[in-house]
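user: At home tonight, take the chain set out below, taking as long as you need, and be ready to discuss the fold:
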Amino acid sequence: MLLASAAAAPTLFGSRANAAKSDLDAAVRAYDEATVRNDVATLAQLVADDYMLINSDSSLQDRQSYLEDFKVPGFKLDPYVLEQPVRRDWGNTALVAGVVKLSWMLEGQRHVRRLRVAHVWTRQEGRWKLAYTQLTRVTARSLSDLDARGD
């Protein structure tokens, strides 16, 4: 009983930071799962009211437009894996980034792109919310440049 209480009690070093990291990890997982399930209700809870998406073609989308995409009949993202992960935490703000091979169906056609994705998450009212996303197409040249640098 004493061990369980001690394990659950906050420690002097990093308990809040560890809890915030764990909360962010859970939010990122929920977001990833919701995108491949077209779960608009969950996405609406995870995406900030002032969310902005910069697509790989440089077009901008706000929260409402982004959520509407998941309601388009026949639109379906395939599961994806974040490669070359980058993570930076700055208190109530965090960057989660990397490279993904994104594939999806739209209007009966399969689309595939390799993208560098950067998500900025902010902690609002005790919960992590996705505030900003930028997608950049990864070309064969940029991949070979990354491999040469060892990134």
In short: The radius of gyration is 18 Å. The helical segments are 2-8, 15-37, 40-46, 63-69, 140-149. The beta strands are 47-54, 60-62, 76-77, 83-90, 93-106, 109-124, 127-137.
